[in-house]
Amino acid sequence: PHPSPLSAHRGFFGCNHFVLANQWLEQRGETPIDWMPVLPAESE
Q1: Helix, strand, coil percent content, the chain, rounded in steps of 5
Q2: Which of 14, 44, 19 is nearest to 34 (CA)?
Q3: What are the C-alpha distances in Å from 26 to residues 12, 36, 37?
Q4: pTM as predicted
């Protein structure tokens, strides 16, 4: 399961993990990650 149960008391949401990861990448000249999931299209 995610997030880890070990982080339950420290919290996960609102800690800006994804923002910090992208800032780290950008500081190194790398392309930031688009963290939005790609959802399958609904079939009709």
Answers
A1: 30, 0, 70
A2: 19
A3: 22, 18, 21
A4: 0.58
CA distance linking residue 12 with residue 21, whole number of Å: 14
**What span, in angstroms and rounded, lies between the C-alpha atoms of 43 and 41?**
6
Taking the chain (44 residues) in runs of 10, the rounded mean pLDDT of each run is 63 80 97 90 78
Say how many Å lie between the first and final Cα of the chain, rounded: 31
Peptide bond into 3 cis (omega under 30): yes
Length of the chain: 44
Task: Catalogue the E-assigned strands of the chain.
Answer: none
